[in-house]
Amino acid sequence: MLRVDYVIGKLPDGFDELRGEAYAEGYRFVERLATDWAAGTTRFDRHGEALLAAYMDGVLAGIGGRTLDPVVPDALRVRRFYVRAACRNQGTGRRLVEALLEFPRRAGTVVLVNAAQGSAAFWEALGFVPERRDGHSHVFDPGIGVSKATG
User: Fold this and answer.
1) What pTM was estimated for this model as a whole?
2) What does the radius of gyration of the chain's CA atoms come to, in whole angstroms?
3) Residue 85 to residue 77: CA distance in whole angstroms
4) Alpha carbons 17 and 34: distance in angstroms, whole number
5) Per-residue b/e over 106-137, b at no fewer than 16 CB within 10 Å?
6) How far apart are CA 26 and CA 62, in angstroms?
7) How far apart are CA 61 and CA 86, in angstroms?
8) In angstroms, rounded to a whole number, what is the distance separating the alpha carbons of residues 85 and 54?
9) Closest to 76 (Cα-Cα) out of 126, 125, 142, 13
């Protein structure tokens, strides 16, 4: 069973194991999440921001955040997104992204992501469109996403 929860106050149980797996795969952004969280510099607590954890059968399977974009005004950015290798291709990442997009869809807010190497097809399947500029690789426009889904 897959469950997605908001992370508030402290990083989730199992985070250190997830962090170690990400680091072993060469992904340093989960380490950055831990460092920024400990320093209090990024807590995903401003309006529109969120940090979500995905659990598969009670075990932390993935994590992902949504922050205000530092470059593009009025945009949000998905960041620190990681799904354990054993939990990929099972809908975990899709469910996590869909939860991250709930608020931006309701608010009509554009969402940006800088897709990790090899993950472009994943993001594009979720409605993100390639756009390389301002430090991001893809953009999700909820107006376009809604019309694609209904049309």
Assistant:
1) 0.92
2) 15
3) 23
4) 12
5) eeebbbbbbbbeeeeebbeebbbeeeeeeebb
6) 16
7) 8
8) 13
9) 142
User: Are 30 and 66 contacting, i.e. CB atoms less than 8 angstroms apart?
Assistant: no
Task: List per-block mean pLDDT (blocks of 10 residues) for the chain, which spans 151 residues.
Answer: 96 97 96 96 96 97 97 96 96 97 96 95 96 95 57 31
Q: Which amino acid is at 13?
A: D
Number of C-beta neighbours around residue 84 at 10 A: 20
Place of tokens 């990442």: 93
For 107, the token pair is: 């608010």
Tokens representing 17 are: 């194991």
Question: And the tokens for 130?
Answer: 């390639």
From the list 41, 37, 86, the residue with the least C-alpha distance to 60 is 86
- At 94, which amino acid appears? R
Half-sphere exposure of 50 toward its Cβ, with a 13 Å CA cutoff?
16
**What number of CA atoms fall less than 13 Å from residue 48's CA on the CB side?**
16
Alpha-carbon torsion (50, 51, 57, 61), positive or negative: positive
Please, what sign has the CA dihedral across residues 129, 110, 99, 106? Answer: negative
